[in-house]
Amino acid sequence: MASAVKNQKFAVLFTWFDQDQDGQLSEDDMRTTAKVFAQVARDEDHSNIGAIHSAFEQWWQLLLQHADTDGDGQISRTEFITTMEASVTSPEHFESAVMAIADAVMNAADTDTDGVLSRDEYIRMYETLGVAPEHSGPAFTRLDLDGNGVISHDEFRAAIVDFYLSNNPDAPGNYLLGPIGHPA
Q1: CATH code matching the domain that covers 1-109, chosen among 3.40.50.720, 1.10.238.10, 3.40.50.12780, 3.40.50.2020
Q2: pTM here?
Q3: Which GO terms describe its molecular function (predicted)?
């Protein structure tokens, strides 16, 4: 069973993905979310755009397979939170669903292709994803673990792992979408 910290994070994530705000996740919600994430990439960045859409489709299929207990093609908040812990974040699915999105989004947001995210690139990326700069600015500082003024690929991946897998309420990755309890 997920910890209270993970439940909070997964509830924020559910709200973020529930694009039509009807309290249920549908295939349309996940496709729309993928389109929002793909906006981080330049129009000609077909590789990262394709990777984002593919990973969200994988995630949706996992939700259908493991969470849609009544077969209605929709995932409730409770089903989502339960399935995030049991299936989506399990080792056999985490890389292909969650980390594939993280890698593609970071690659797309690295507009100067130097292999790291500057503060401006990071804030612009999360602003595109609907996270206010007053949340993404402080998050950048928390995620820059070595304090060198940029977020490396390893630091970004560590933040994603923190967000999805850590039970520690003070883990730096918990601030990716703003403070826990404050949806993006």
Answers
A1: 1.10.238.10
A2: 0.90
A3: calcium ion binding
